[in-house]
Amino acid sequence: MKPVQAGNAAIRRTNHRGRRGAVAVMMGGVLLLGAACSSNGGGGSTAGGGSNDTAATGGATGGAAAPSQETPKVSTAVLNVEPKDGAVDVNPTNGVKVGVTGGKLTAVEVTDKDGKAVAGTITPDGLGWAPSGALTVGMAYKVNVQATDPAGLVSASTTTFTTLTPAKTVSTNDNIADNATYGVGMIVSVKFNKAIKNQDAVLNGITFVASDGTTVKGHWFGSQRLDFRPEKYWNPGTKVTIKYRLKNVEVAPGIYGDVDKDEPFVIGRSQVSTADSATHQMTVVRDGKSTVLPVTLGDAKNPSWNGTMVISSKEKVTRMNSQTVGLGAEYDIQDVPHAMRLTDSGTFVHGNYWANPFGKSNASHGCVSMQDVQGGSDTSVAGKFFNDSMIGDPVTIKNSTSATVKPDNGLSGWTMDFKNW
Question: By CB atoms within 10 Å of each CB, which of 29, 92, 243, 378 scores lowest?
C-alpha cells in the first residue's frame, strides 16, 4: 500500500496478524478515515488513486470495501466569552461575561493565578454566567467554559485575562480604633477624601458582624461621608467587626477603594444621659442606676440643640473660642476642663469654673456645663462625669427653645427615624 499524499496528511499503520490496519488522514483540520485492504493472494492495493481489488457488492466475498470519507460533526453551540483571550486592564467590577447561542452552558470555571475559584452561577436558562462579586485588581485569571447543543455535542473554550491595577484610589478613614470599647450610642462614621459616585457598591463593600446578630444600616450624608448604626442603641458587651472590602470596588470612574480589612471593636457598659433645659438637671442612667446632676445649658440667646447627640471625643483641658463657632468675640477660654464634644458645630459637655448657675438657670452658649475647678478635678461633678463617660455615650437634650440637631452634625444620627436611615 502506498501512503496517501495530501499536504500535511498524518498516516498511521498498524500490523495485526499480517493485515494492514486503518489509515487516518488529517487534512486541513478534517479527519479522514479509510479502511485498508488486502488480498488473499498477498498482493498490494493502491489507496486514494484507485484499486485493483474488486469492490464488495451484493453477496460477493473476499473483496475489499470501498474507501469512505466522514467529516466529524461540529457542535452548534457558539460560546461568547468576555473579555477576549489575552485581554489586559480588565475592569474587575463587570468585565467578565459568558454567554452561548445554539446550546446551553454546562460548566463555567474562572480561577485566579493561585487556582482560587471565582464564585458565580449559570443563569436558569443556561444561556449566561457572571461572577457574583468583583474580581481582584491586578490579578491574572483563566476561564474554562463548556456548552452542549441539542444533539449533545460539546463546545469548549479556554481563555485568560488580567484585571487592571488602579492608577487612582480613594482614602478611607473611620472613627473606630481596633479593639477599642465604645458606648451604646456609638455611630460609625466613614469619610472619603474623594466624592463617591458608586455609593451602592461602596455600601455593599462595608459590612458589619455583631455577636448578638444586631443589624446595622448605612446612610450617606453627601458624597464623602457614610454613617452606620443599628435601629436602637447597641446592647452592652456586643462584639462588633467591620469588614471593609473596597479594594476591588470602583467607587467613581477610574477610582478604586483602598482598603480590605477587618476592624473589631466592643460595646461597653450602658450609660445614657438626658439634660433637661427646663429643669437645669441632667439624669444619667448607667446600667440601670440613675443619678441626677445639676447643669446649665444654652441661654435664651444661644439655646442648646434639642435631640440625641453622641460623645465623639474627650479632652482633659481644651481651649474654647467663640470665633470658631461664629459667635464673634463672645469668649476665649484657654483652659476649659473636662471637655467632651457632642457636635461639629461646637456643642460640648464640659466643666465650668468661672460661674455657678448649675441647677438654677441656663447661662451657657449652647453647651451642657457643670461644676468644676480651674485645671479640672477628678472629684468635681464634671470630673466624675468625665471619668465615667466614654466615646459613644449618648447625651439627649430636651425642652430647649432651639431646633433639633441635624443628624450629620457630629454623631447625631439617632435623631433620624430608622426607616429613613
Answer: 29
Domain count, the chain: 4
> In the predicted model, what is the mean pLDDT of residues 49-61?
39
Q: Three-state DSSP class for 382?
A: helix
Q: Report cis status (omega within 30 of 0) of the bond before 131.
A: no
Of 144, 163, 182, the position where a domain reaches its end is 163
Contact 250, 133 (CB under 8 A): no
CATH for 303: 2.40.440.10
Asked if residue 277 lies in contact with residue 398, where contact means CB atoms within 8 angstroms, the answer is yes
Q: What is the pLDDT of residues 321-379, one digit of tens each?
A: 766 666 666 667 788 899 999 999 999 999 999 999 999 999 998 999 999 999 999 99
pLDDT at 49 over 50: no
Regarding beta strands 368-371 and 348-352, do their DSSP bridges make them parallel or antiparallel, or are they unpaired?
A: parallel
Q: Is the pLDDT of residue 142 over 70?
A: yes
Mark whether 365 is an active-site residue: no
Write the CB contacts of 356 (distance below 8 Å, at least 6 apart in sequence). 371
Contacts of 119 (CB under 8 A, 6+ apart): 131, 132, 133
Domain range for residue 144?
A: 78-163
Residue 350 annotated among the catalytic residues of the structure: yes
Contact (CB, 8 A) for 78 and 155: yes
Q: What is the mean pLDDT of residues 242-261?
A: 94
Q: Residue 55: inside a domain, yes or no?
A: no
Say whether both 407 and 276 belong to one domain: yes
415: its cell numbers: 435623631
Q: Point out the catalytic residue in the list 219, 280, 338, 350.
A: 350
Tell me, what DSSP letter sits at residue 322?
A: G
Confidence (pTM): 0.73
